[in-house]
Amino acid sequence: MILLAFVLKHENIMKKIHFKGLNELRALAALAVVFYHIELYKKRAGTISLFNTFLKKSIESLGHNGVNLFFVLSGFLITYLLIEEKEKFGKIDIKKFYIRRLLRIWPLYYFIFLVAIFILPFAVKNLGLFNDGGFYAKYILMVDVNFETLFLLFLLFLPNLALAKQLTLPGASQAWSVGTEEQYYLFWPIVIDKIKKDFWVVFFIAFIIAKSALNMIAENNFSPETSSFIYTLKVELMAIGAIGAYYTYYHNEKIIPWTTNKWLFILNTILILICLKYQVHHLIFGVLFLYLILYSINDSPLSLRNKYLDEVGKISYGVYMYHPIIMFITYSLINNFIEKNNLIIYNILVYFFTIAGSFVISKLSYNYFESYFLKLKSKGYTVVESGS
């Protein structure tokens, strides 16, 4: 008999809802983004990169879809928890939801923002970071050109608008996706609270269609900046995750034969790999990723279970946020000792220190910085306990 990660459906109000497999997927998504950024920045600095090969499009797609997987996964888990809260208490405590998001996301977001806008430029100017004055030094110092605008946009939690305006904040630009999620969650708990559950799926589908239509309208009729901002709001991917949450919560017995079928899982995996090569529309990836999530949360024969990836998944928010800064420091140090034309040694060191450094600093951050705010969250603002 297949054991689901969310068994014993909510008999105890304090029992944690835990979906196995989600941390492993978070780890894979984070590693995909790290790999993409390492190769991208090697290319920008004039170092031989896989971006200079036939793999360029696949690597770009891998990096972008690592973020897309985060979106679908977030939409699935957060919507499931909101549904659970609505079922238990008949309503959503909107204020507590916002406070929980603030305590989980904001501390690390603003720390990275402050490091990127103040400490990295200071280190370049005064501490000899990238003392060769090459690409990385110039890239980091670009913040001085649009300092006021960048400061305001990131302060107001609009990093995706900065991206749309092509304003770069090296070390924090990856936060655009965090901004998108937070903007989405400004209204999503209200949707779950106010709309009757019989109409949720209809609303989710209509929402996806409307957002997709807006993307097309914006591309052909709006300014490039506005069109780009609308496109970065990939809220339709989170709504796809929400559909999965609805059916998992209310109709799992009906979908379980499909979401535990190993042949469908193999087919889905093959389709993901093919789509990565050909850069298909992100909605197609959204559907494929949703199936991947629904299969992963079951103890099926091919479900990914790995204690190391599970640990990385627990700190994946940190890995995602810290890795560009770690990458800059890594490049600065390695460039002082290793010739770039020594490709094997150079790449081994770049990958090892970027990945290992990101893991270590993320673990320390989680244990000694983020955990303080997580404890505050659990003391008075957690309504439904989650271990996912």
TrEMBL record:
The keyword Protein biosynthesis does not apply. The chain crosses the membrane at residues 21-38, 66-83, 103-124, 136-158, 199-217, 229-248, 255-274, 319-338, 344-369. Residues 21-362 form the Acyltransferase domain. InterPro entries: Acyl_transf_3_dom, Acyltransferase_3. GO terms for cellular component: membrane. Keywords: Acyltransferase, Hydrolase, Membrane, Transferase, Transmembrane, Transmembrane helix. GO terms for molecular function: acyltransferase activity, transferring groups other than amino-acyl groups; hydrolase activity. One of its GO terms (biological process) is polysaccharide biosynthetic process. The keyword Nucleotidyltransferase does not apply. This is Peptidoglycan/LPS O-acetylase OafA/YrhL, contains acyltransferase and SGNH-hydrolase domains.
